[in-house]
Every structure is written in C-alpha cells, then in structure tokens.
Amino acid sequence: MATVPKVLEPKNDKKKRTRSPAYPFINLETAIKRAKEFWDQEQSNAANLKVAVDHWGYDIKSSGGLQTAAALVSFGLMKDEGSGDRRKLQLTPAALRILHAPDSKERAEAIKQAALAPKIHERIWQKWGNNLPSDASLRYTLLSEWEPKFNANAVDGFIKQYKDTIAFAKLTESDKVASEVEDNGGEGESQTPYLAQIGDWVQWESNGTLRFPEPKRVKGLSPDGNWVYVDGQHGAVPRAELLKESAPANPQNQPDPNSALRMPLPKTHMQEFVVPLSGGGKAVFQWPSALSEEDKTDLQDSLKIVERKILRAEKSEQTLETFGTKSGIAPGS
Fold first, then answer.
1. In angstroms, rounded to a whole number, what is the distance separating the alpha carbons of residues 120 and 114?
2. How far apart are CA 6 and CA 219, in angstroms?
3. 3-class SS of residue 259
4. C-alpha 158: how far from its chain's center?
5. Which of 67, 103, 112, 114 is most buried per CB count within 10 Å?
6. Of 226, 198, 201, 199, which Cα lies nearest the Cα of 214?
7. What are the DSSP E strand ranges found in the chain?
8. What's the longest Cα–Cα distance across the chain?
9. What does each C-alpha distance from 93 to 37, 66, 107, 173 come to in angstroms?
C-alpha cells in the first residue's frame, strides 16, 4: 500500500483539490495590452518584477501581478531572469513584433504564434482546431478525460480565456504551432520537460500562479519520482509543476546549496514499517527519513488518533454482535 506524500497547498485551502494544468490568467488581447503598458514605461529594457507589476496597477504581494507576469511569459511576450528580489522581466522579440511591426501580416503571424505558445493551448488546438465541441462537452472532457484533469472551479474561466484568445488571433484550420515560438519552462512540444533534481533551485507554478515567494532548493525526491521536497517546507510539491530558477544572490535562511553535493545522500527518503496481520492483511506506516521536532510530535498525536479509531471500531463490532444475539438478527444481515 503506497503512501502519497502530503502536497503543499496554498494558504486557506483546507481541502485537497484537483490541480488544473497551467494556463494563462488573462487572454492574449489583454496580455498584449499589458505588454504595451510595460513598453510605454521601460521600452526594451528589463525591469524588476516589483516595478513591472506596479506598471500594471498591482502590488507585489497581489497574486494578480504574479499571474499577469506568468501569463505574458506563457504567451512568449516576456522573458524573466533572476529570482526573488532580483527577478526581472523583459519584452521578447515576439512582443516587439506585435507592438511595432510595420507589416500587418508579420504582426498577425506573431499574434497567432503567441496564441498557441502555452502548452495547454497547443494541445487543444492540435486536438480540435477550429472545430471546438460545445462548451458543455469541452467542459466534461477537461474535467473527466483530460490528463491532467482541470479543477471544476477553474475550467469555465479557462474555456472563456482560450476561446477569446483564439478568436482574437483569428486562427484558421491551416495554422500550425510554430516551433520557434519562445516559451519559458519547457512548454513547447519540441522541448524536453524539465525535471527538478536535488540541489536545483525551483519555483512552483500551478494554474498560472507562482506559489513560492522566492525560489527554493530541492532537498529530496519521493520514491516514485513524482514529488519533490524543498527547503523550508514540510510538504511535497508536484515535480511536473516546477520551473528551474537561478540561485538567489543572497538566499536568506537557506542551507548551503552545495551541501547536497558534499554529503552522501541516503538510498531512500522514506522509511517503512510493515505489520503483518493475522487475517492475512497488513498495516503499513511510511514517513520521511528526516523529521523535524514538530513533525515528530504530529506523528505521535496521529498514532494516538489511529489507536482510538481502532478501539472504537472494535467496540462497535462487539456492540453489534451483542445486539444481534439478543434480537435474533445475525450481524451483517
């Protein structure tokens, strides 16, 4: 019986939710307007992330600013470099062609390429092209048959954003995905998806939102390789949703990034204890090799809860058997 590592959830999200594939927070027409607002202030120069989101009317602590930046990167209109307080954004040549191309045909082609730059846009266009099913059918497919599946709270917003983008770009059935479209984080079909390794500095992007306030260093992988443990977090995050980042110039409260290279790594990052049961089954307990004092206390409390549940279940069975004997009703009938 395998145990799935605990996933780090955003604050105030107490329920485990289905994570939608990454998609742009805004449609392409709005993204181009945001690129123009950046150009009006910075031209082709790079600007700090805090300055960029201020140009768009957001505070740096607002998720809307980070989501807008992620959307422009996803459409290939911006590129970013650095991390944390040193993260900078800059318009790409594709964005400059859209904003300033004297040839209307060149601009139209650049817009089409930008519309299909996000991986999720590319996949849907390759499947249906201009012949999209009804919204109800598309919604059902994305929620039930798509891999990875969409979150029910996000799917309607994505469908509207995608249809608005395709309509704005005036895509036709003959339009194909251009391999030269710039895309950050390996979203292009021709690029190999990035898989974080121990010692890498990463950012977690989910649903077009950057979840870490600053990049974090990978300290371990789950046994199946699908989950990643990072410094400063007790939970695991999906490996497929991580973007590679540069190490911060002055990381605060971060372990030495080279320590993983100097210290021998354990053969496994999970401990397992199996208790054979008389009925032929087994009970399996799994936990990470490295535990903080807080984690140890939580596990001790959890074991007490398990013990109470076992005793309650046993008492319930005894009560049911006694009732069945006195009433003449066989247990389970």
1. 13
2. 15
3. helix
4. 15
5. 114
6. 201
7. 47-48, 78-81, 88-91, 201-206, 209-210, 216-221, 227-230, 236-238, 242-245, 270-276, 282-288
8. 92
9. 16, 21, 12, 26
pLDDT tens-digit map of 211-253: 777 888 898 888 777 788 888 876 788 888 888 887 776 665 5
DSSP 127-144: HHTT----HHHHHHIIII
Segments in 45-92 forming alpha helices (H):
49-55, 63-74
Per the CB < 8 A criterion, the answer to whether 39 and 264 are in contact is no
Give me the helix-helix angle, 104-115 and 152-169, nearest 10°. 160
Cα separations (Å) of 107 from 38, 110, 133?
18, 5, 29
Helices (H) and strands (E) in the chain, counts: 10, 11
Q: Which two tokens stand for residue 78?
A: 């911006």
CB 167 within 8 A of CB 180: no
d(CA 136, CA 155): 11
Residue 270 bridge partners (DSSP): 288
Contact predicate 127/28, CB 8 Å: no
* Cut 0.90: pTM above it: no
d(CA 248, CA 254) in angstroms, rounded, equals 10
| In the block, residue with structure tokens 């109800």 | 136
Q: Taking a C-beta distance cutoff of 8 angstroms, is the pair 72, 210 a contact? A: no
Q: What angle do CA 76, 156, 239 make, to 5 degrees?
A: 55
Q: DSSP state, 240?
A: G
Q: How many residues are listed for the chain in this entry?
A: 333
User: For the CA atoms of 114, 116, 118, 120, what is the dihedral angle to 10 degrees?
Assistant: 160
Predicted confidence (pLDDT) per residue in 283-321, tens digit:
777 777 677 777 777 778 778 877 877 777 666 655 555
Distance CA 17, CA 283 (A): 27
